[in-house]
Amino acid sequence: MAGEDFDERAWRDRLTDHREQKDEFLAEHPQSPIPPESRDEFDGLAYYDPDPEYRVVSRFSRAQSPETVDLETTRGPPAEYDRVAVFGFELDDDHHTLEAYRIQGEDTLFVPFADPTNGDETYHRGRYLDVDAQDAESGDDVVLDFNLAYNPFCAYSDTFSCALPPDENHLDVPVRAGERARE
DSSP secondary-structure letter at 33? Predict the structure, then answer.
């Protein structure tokens, strides 16, 4: 569990509120990836139960010279991102790393990842994490909360093109946190 002054009750409340807001967005917002004809039946996403063990302190290492890379997408041409950092962390008693990307002008770092749950329990092409860039740049340690892992919009509609996790971001440990696959 991450952080000495971690307030689990407040964290659970924030996580519940975040999930409720996301479900409301997907059910009602005009930009929802849920097809309009399916929104009346939409009763929320499937999630793993909140688990503080998937809220980990990571070591933030900024890239000395960020490089532009092309990430494959689910459809269409590759998407261009700047590789800006690496997060190193412990999960399931082993050390792991995930590369972080940024689109110019964005305030968040984009962390696409894949893990052994893909296909059976979670979206088959991977999930995403977003990390506030200010949190990352304010120090060496950054909390990665996999309970906030989410499916890309292309998990809900073929009309979206979504970046795929690069090989460097394929974890060998199951991450049973965040959004699950819809049934």
Answer: S
Across residues 165-173, what is the average pLDDT?
97
Give the distance between the most distant pair of CA atoms in the chain. 49
Euclidean distance between CA atoms 172 and 15, whole angstroms = 26
How far is 4 from 10, CA to CA, in rounded Å? 14
Dump pLDDT digits (tens) for 3-52. 558 899 999 999 999 999 999 999 999 999 999 999 999 999 999 999 99
Distance CA(68)–CA(179), nearest Å, equals 29
Distances (CA, A) of 146 to 39, 56, 77: 27, 8, 28
* Alpha-carbon gap, residue 87 to 73, rounded angstroms: 22
pLDDT at residue number 1: 45
Q: Tens of pLDDT along 124-142?
A: 999 999 998 777 776 678 9
Q: What values do phi and psi take at 134, rounded to 5?
A: -65, -40
Provide the β-strand partners of residue 61.
86
Give the pLDDT score at 18: 97
Is residue 144 a contact partner of residue 87, using CB atoms and an 8 Å limit? Answer: yes
Q: Which residues of 17-28 are buried (b: 16+ CB within 10 A; e: fewer)?
A: eebeebeeebbe
